[in-house]
Amino acid sequence: MSSQYLRLSAGIGGGVKLCGRAHVNPTLSPTDALDVERFRRKLEARFGRPDHVADADYSYSVRDNLTGVEFEAYSAQSGPAYGGTPADSFVDFDQDDYRIKPEVFRTLAAFDAWLEGGQP
Description:
32% helix, globular, 5-stranded antiparallel beta sheet
């Protein structure tokens, strides 16, 4: 397990869907980006058995200890995705600016690369 990524208690990192895997990792084929079981196997290899939260098939709450960003890696009806709390994840949630904050996007991209076997 990585000291950079810490698994949190179920549901802490979630809130709303931020993006699917293809958005943060364009190196994945469309098939791999949407493969629910493949994503689960990668997460389970790093963090153990998944949590089952609300309407998700499985879910992992994670904190990136380098950036402080907390998020949810999960799969639900729309497939493998990342979620987060609106106020912490969007540029200006209160003013309806729903763009993902650059530091959150970079964190998700680095995490997905790490899942795929890259560094950190």
